[in-house]
Structures are given as structure tokens and as C-alpha cells.
Write a structure and sequence with these properties.
225 residues, 53% helix, disordered N terminus, mainly alpha, binds iron/sulfur cluster, Endonuclease III, domain 1
Length: 225
């Protein structure tokens, strides 16, 4: 008979196998490990952060940072983006993949900002998610990092780590966001997400988490050490 062993790194939705990790202890250890965790997209204004975040879908922050200097220089305002020649824009975005849809998205975003918000990025969740191509995750990145408005960004790393710590078994980003909002005070939300993302990128990988190197192994219910 085939032997099936249970993974100790639960798949999304699988129940945690031990007690959840204490949220305050996790936050404290992550703060020790990643005191300077920050948004890894380069930006100098809310518009630049919004554009960079939209571009970061299905690619890495490193790649986005390689194309944005030219992009921001050629198209410094929402109006200039809305009037961009699509071929020129696609040529700049080509290294990111999906460059046609991303170019169209930026032109639409520039147009909406220019026509509906005087070219400014609104510091408001409802207004942000009403913009074309802007979802809740992007909106929370912009609010937290460009406007210092507390927001929880549930990307693939934050969702995965929240489940591994046993804080939730949900895969729905909005419900994970609410759960984290219950566990942590708003003043910690933005930096906590940066630290979870740093940890997910450096140690708690999706496929083979490096539990042997992880400072949280003693309190993580998914630890395999
Ligand atoms: S790497 Fe750390 S946080 Fe991730 S599952 Fe292993 S012990 Fe838990």
C-alpha cells in the first residue's frame, strides 16, 4: 500500500497542524531580522509608485526597477502617460513580459487620473480601486508607502506566511487582510507586510522553505527542522 505522508508546509487552505505562532513574537523576530524592510520598488512620488506597482504584476520588483527610470523620465505625469505612443511605451515595457497589456493599462490609468483626479493619485482606497487596472493589493501598497495610510497588502508571500503561521486557513486575500487586521494594530500593518514579504523572498520560500535557517522555527506550526 502506498504510504502518503502529510506535508508540514500546508497547501493553501490546509489546516495548521500545531498551535498558531504568537503574532507579537513573530512581529518582534521579523523586526529583528529585517529592521530596514521596505517597499522594493523604486519610486519618488505616488504616481511613480502606482505605475511601478501596476507593472509588478507577474514579474519581479528588480525587473520593474530596471525599466522605470526611462519610463518615468519619458512620461513624468499622468497626462503624458495618457498621450503616450503605444509602440514607444511597449518598447520600454517589453522586458517585463505582457508588455502590450501593461502599456494599454498605463495609458488607461494615465487617462483616468488626468480626467478624473487632475493628474493626482487619490489617497483613498475607494477612489484607487475605481481606477482601471488597480486592485485592492495595489491600492494598499500605494496608500501605505506613498501616503502613510495603514493598509495590509496581501500578496502571494503575505498570504502564504499567514497560513503557515496558522493565523488563517483562508486563501481569499480580502479575508486574509481582515484576519491580519484583527491580529495586528494599524500602526504595524505596512511594515509587517514588508517584513513578511522579505521573509517570504529570502527564507520562507513557496516550494522549499529554509526552515533550518529560519529564526521563527521554534514558534512556527509549519516548521520542518
Ligand atoms: S521557513 Fe520559517 S516561517 Fe517558513 S515554514 Fe519554515 S519555520 Fe515556518
Amino acid at each position: 500500500m502506498a504510504h502518503v505522508s502529510a506535508s508540514r508546509h500546508p497547501e493553501p487552505g490546509a489546516p495548521p497542524t500545531r498551535d498558531p505562532a504568537p503574532p507579537a513574537a513573530v512581529a518582534a523576530e521579523l523586526a529583528r531580522r529585517y529592521p530596514d524592510a521596505h517597499c522594493e520598488l523604486d519610486f519618488a512620488s505616488p504616481l511613480q509608485l502606482l505605475v511601478a506597482t501596476v507593472l509588478s504584476a507577474q514579474t519581479t520588483d528588480v525587473r520593474v526597477n530596471q525599466v522605470t527610470p526611462e519610463l518615468f523620465e519619458r512620461y513624468p505625469t499622468a497626462a503624458s502617460l495618457s498621450a503616450a505612443d503605444v509602440g514607444d511605451l511597449e518598447a520600454i515595457l517589453r522586458p517585463l513580459g505582457f508588455f502590450r497589456s501593461k502599456a494599454a493599462a498605463l495609458i488607461g490609468l494615465g487617462r483616468a487620473l488626468a480626467e478624473e483626479h487632475d493628474g493626482e493619485v487619490p489617497a483613498d482606497l475607494t477612489a484607487l480601486v475605481a481606477l482601471p487596472g488597480v486592485g485592492r493589493k495595489t491600492a494598499n501598497v500605494v496608500l501605505g508607502n506613498a501616503f502613510d495610510v495603514p493598509g495590509i497588502t496581501v500578496d502571494t508571500h503575505v498570504g502564504r506566511l499567514a497560513r503557515r503561521f496558522g493565523w488563517t486557513d483562508d486563501v481569499d486575500p480580502v479575508r486574509v487582510e481582515r484576519r491580519l487586521g484583527d491580529l495586528f494594530p494599524p500602526r504595524e500593518w505596512v511594515v509587517l507586510c514588508h517584513r513578511l514579504i522579505f521573509h517570504g523572498r529570502r527564507i520562507c520560500f513557496a516550494r522549499r522553505p529554509a526552515c533550518g535557517e529560519c529564526p521563527l522555527a521554534g514558534i512556527c506550526p509549519s516548521a520542518e527542522v
